[in-house]
Amino acid sequence: MSISQFTSSLSATLRWTAASSDSLATTTDTQLLTHTASKVYGTGSGQANIIWHDTLNSAATLSLSALPRSILGIAGNYSFSSVRTLRIKNAASSGNVTVTMAACGLSSLTLPPGGVIVIDSPPGWTASGTLAIGGTVTAVEVVLIGVGTGES
Question: What is the spatial distance between Cα 65 and Cα 81, in angstroms, rounded to a whole number?
Fold first, then answer.
């Protein structure tokens, strides 16, 4: 049994207002930046056919070619050929975690408690190697969406 239907959507909004005043005037800078992306079932650019998610409670080095399935109760492993969306959140209340995934250009990123990273690329990155989560890992939410195969 494998996934036969898939959709995902990602929406991010960043808004800010900054002001500076002197005796002559007040200058403001207000911006609104948005990013939305959705994926449907498939293997083309902007599509995906597998999703893997887990909450890690200890440091781990995950092989992108042998991730145990974590969706729909399907036994087997996923093998990613391309990662299209990556989301990692340090959900712990204390302790920094480090994230390394060379395939996405992350040589080493530190996430403090509550820190989140979301990377999205319609064509994706070649999923070679591993995703390493280190440091003080007590609750790290990991989601990978991409293209690949799953053994059942």
Answer: 8
The tokens for 41 are 């079932």
The dotted CATH code for 38-150 is 2.60.120
The neighbour count for residue 90, using CB atoms within 10 Å, is 27
Residues 35 and 14: their CA atoms lie apart, in Å, by 9
Which pair of tokens denotes residue 104? 């996405």
3-state secondary structure at position 86: strand
Where are the domains positioned within the chain? 38-150
Tell me the pLDDT tens digit for each residue of 44-98. 999 999 889 999 999 999 999 999 876 777 777 889 999 999 999 999 999 999 9
Q: What is the CA radius of gyration of the chain?
A: 18
Do the beta carbons of residue 96 and residue 77 sit within 8 Å?
A: no
Q: Give the amino acid at 30.
A: T
- Ramachandran angles phi, psi of 58, nearest 5°: -155, 160
Specify the 3-state DSSP secondary structure of 70: coil
Cβ count near 69 (within 10 Å): 19
pLDDT at 125 over 60: yes
Classify residue 17 as exposed, middle or buried by CB count within 10 Å of its CB (0-12, 13-18, 19+): exposed
